[in-house]
UniProtKB/TrEMBL annotation:
Residues 50-174 form the Gfo/Idh/MocA-like oxidoreductase N-terminal domain. Belongs to the Gfo/Idh/MocA family. Glycosyl hydrolase 109 subfamily. One of its GO terms (molecular function) is nucleotide binding. Keywords: Glycosidase, Hydrolase, NAD. It comes from the Bacteria. This is Uncharacterized protein. Residues 187-352 form the Glycosyl hydrolase 109 C-terminal domain. The keyword NAD applies.
Length: 449
């Protein structure tokens, strides 16, 4: 499946998503949670090599294909995309890497279902437009394959539950591939947090602050489908990049959990103003009503009393940032630029560069794999997330993120939409673990031994 996306199909799916949102709202208003206790942790047998079917080999999908071809034990057996040229490009890359030419599935938007039914795959990995993440993952797990998806894993609460329940029923992993979990400063700070250097964590701030106006108003790549979300939805639509690494610092779903959320959006101006400048004040894109507020701020409180601010800002002129603030009883870290203050260690009332602590607290993953990650997408983060997933499946180890993590972080989208629509009313998070978060051990690695 490519980045190209038909507006008619989006509107059909949009109606389904909207109906699902209303049903989910009614269910949660009654305190309803799908019945049953959380299943025991999935213990999947080793699969070495890991045989992969890749769905969606546009820009980001192709980047992952290139990474996987560099990782020992990863074999790409099939690729799927609605654009034949994209599938052929992926086939060529695999063949050039010395692997047999993978079969291509290009017969429409649901041809991934045929791919999932193959008997020579262990993992189905998807980098499609957001609405297709859950259908691909569910089809993969029901066909007996592990599933991995680009972010967000799901758009609605109902979709989050579908991923959780399908993973539990099939005993297959479903992993949301959040690359920012593997950023060098993020992992360095996580290592320091796990070693107690910042004390007890009290407050976190993160987000996705990235000027995407030109992309959304463009006619290629992600633009045509991504702008449809801005037209139809108002909330924190892309929370995972900022929230993923922060969640690891407080062991969400593994000792703590998201409890409730409130959210507020600003007015919408950015897309209209840029469209008027580029296409004229009377152009359809300039006159379009965009539901998405230019800046959304969501506030989360966890069961253990940690406060978290998550910001979504993609329609204003600004430098890129994920904020990345970690505040504890013993100190504070702030990103963009990276700086740290530790009580009793740093100069009084003065920031220090994070680099000062890199040699002492460098994360083991960057020590062992950092050189190989150089040149890969997003500063090497993409390679490391792919490497860790393949390593886990090859050895039978538990992956760095599980389906409960995927559901909890993705749930921010619908909960924030509901809060915004109801004058910032508080919205409760479902407990996707059904209580297991209290005893589940932390799973995101700080040691590799």
């Amino acid at each position: 499946m490519s980045d190209a996306y038909d507006r008619r199909d989006f509107l059909k799916l949009g109606a389904t998503v909207g109906a699902g949102l209303l049903l989910g709202q009614a269910a949660l208003a009654k305190g309803a949670t799908p019945a049953g206790a959380a299943q025991p942790r999935i213990e999947a047998p080793k699969c070495d090599p890991v045989r992969i079917g890749y769905v969606g080999v546009g820009g980001q999908g192709t980047s992952h294909v290139k990474n996987l071809l560099q990782i020992e034990g990863a074999q790409i057996k099939a690729v799927c995309d609605i654009v034949e040229e994209h599938a052929k490009r992926a086939q060529d890359l695999v063949e050039q890497a010395g692997q047999p030419r993978p079969e291509a599935y290009t017969k429409g938007k649901t041809d991934f279902q045929r791919l999932c039914e193959r008997d020579d795959l262990d993992l189905v990995y998807t980098a499609t437009p957001w609405e297709w993440h859950v259908p691909v993952c569910v089809a993969a797990m029901k066909a007996g394959k592990h599933a991995a998806t680009e972010v967000p894993a799901a758009v609605t609460i109902d979709e989050c539950w579908e991923l959780v329940e399908t993973s539990e029923k099939t005993r297959k992993h479903c992993v949301m591939m959040e690359n920012c979990n593997y950023g060098r400063p993020e992992l360095l700070v996580l290592n320091m947090v796990r070693k107690g250097m910042l004390g007890e964590i009290l407050h976190l701030e993160g987000g996705y602050l990235h000027d995407l106006r030109a992309l959304k108003l463009g006619s290629t790549g992600e633009g045509p489908w991504r702008v449809q979300h801005s037209i139809r939805r108002d909330g924190n639509l892309y929370p995972t990049h900022g929230l993923g690494p922060l969640s690891n610092c407080i062991n969400v779903n593994h000792g703590d959990r998201f409890d409730f959320l409130v959210s507020v959006s600003s007015k919408s101006r950015g897309l209209n103003l840029l469209a008027a400048k580029q296409f004229g004040a009377d152009s359809p894109r300039a006159k379009m009503t965009y539901a998405l507020g230019d800046v959304n701020t969501s506030l989360i409180r966890t069961a253990n009393g940690v406060s978290i601010i998550v910001i979504h800002d993609c329609d204003t002129p600004r430098p890129y940032s994920r904020i990345n603030l970690v505040q504890g009883t013993g100190g504070i870290f702030m990103g963009y630029p990276d700086r740290i203050y530790m009580e009793g260690t740093s100069p009084n009332d003065a920031w220090e560069p994070l680099d000062k602590y890199q040699e002492q607290y460098e994360h083991p993953l960057w020590k062992t794999e950092g050189e190989q990650a150089k040149g890969a997408g997003h500063g090497g983060m993409d390679y490391l997330e792919d490497y860790r997933l393949i390593q886990a499946l090859r050895t039978g180890a538990y992956p760095d993120q599980d389906v409960y993590d995927a559901a909890a972080i993705s749930a921010v989208s619908e909960l924030s939409e509901r809060s915004v629509a109801n004058r910032s009313r508080s919205e409760d998070f479902p407990d996707f673990t059904r209580g297991a978060w209290k005893t589940s051990p932390p799973i995101f690695i700080t040691d590799l031994g």
